[in-house]
């Protein structure tokens, strides 16, 4: 498994807002640069045979206007696709609809910058309770899985191995650090520091089972 501290530090996390037809939405952006060529990262993110190796089993039609379903998680419709640069889709889960967009950019030395934007209407009560970490920790785990899958030294792990790692001490430390970083992003976005800290602790407890203070 990739070093947890190194992975946490390799990821950039930002928050913002966007006005949609249904009103103001929260925008979460998470990004990382991988030591892999653009075409390989694109294939890892769009190939139904590779996605389960680092994320979740997926079924459906992974083409423009096709429907997809991630096992035990979200499904949706592919709304835009510009291979090998970007794709966008609805993210439908628990009766709610949000939107994701993945953008890939080649950078120096044959590396690729992966950026995922998640746009969602989140009611204030739920935001106050858990903050951005409710979604953000999950995406951090996704980027960790992709990093492991793309590792040049072949150190990739299966999702099943990742589940076991999640309940290990290192896994709990990773989730805690991710939750803390999303709390910091929330403060940078204007949230009161005490409120952000309380939401971060509730999110950490949700993922790790640790008691809140």
Automatic annotation (TrEMBL):
Pfam families: AHSA1. This is Uncharacterized conserved protein YndB, AHSA1/START domain. CDD domains: SRPBCC_CalC_Aha1-like_6. InterPro entries: ASHA1/2-like_C (IPR013538), START-like_dom_sf (IPR023393). Residues 35-140 form the Activator of Hsp90 ATPase homologue 1/2-like C-terminal domain. Belongs to the AHA1 family. It comes from Micromonospora echinofusca.
């Amino acid at each position: 498994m990739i070093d947890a501290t190194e992975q946490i530090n390799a990821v950039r996390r930002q928050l913002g807002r966007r006005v949609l037809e249904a009103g103001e939405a929260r925008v979460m952006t998470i990004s990382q640069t991988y030591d892999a060529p653009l075409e390989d990262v694109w294939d890892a993110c769009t190939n139904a045979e590779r996605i389960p190796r680092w994320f979740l089993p997926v079924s459906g039609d992974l083409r423009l206007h096709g429907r997809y379903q991630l096992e035990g998680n979200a499904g949706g419709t592919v709304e835009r696709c510009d291979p090998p640069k970007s794709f966008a889709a609805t993210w439908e889960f628990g009766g709610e609809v949000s939107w994701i967009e993945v953008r890939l950019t080649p950078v120096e030395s044959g590396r690729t910058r992966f950026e995922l934007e998640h746009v969602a209407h989140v009611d204030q009560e739920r935001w106050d309770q858990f903050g951005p970490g409710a979604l953000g920790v999950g995406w951090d785990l996704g980027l960790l899985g992709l990093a492991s899958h793309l590792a040049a030294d072949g150190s990739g792990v299966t999702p099943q191995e990742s589940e076991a790692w999640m309940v290990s001490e290192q896994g709990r430390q990773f989730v805690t650090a991710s939750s803390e970083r999303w709390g910091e992003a929330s403060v940078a976005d204007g949230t009161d520091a005490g409120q952000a800290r309380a939401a971060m602790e509730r999110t950490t407890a949700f993922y790790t089972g640790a008691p809140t203070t």
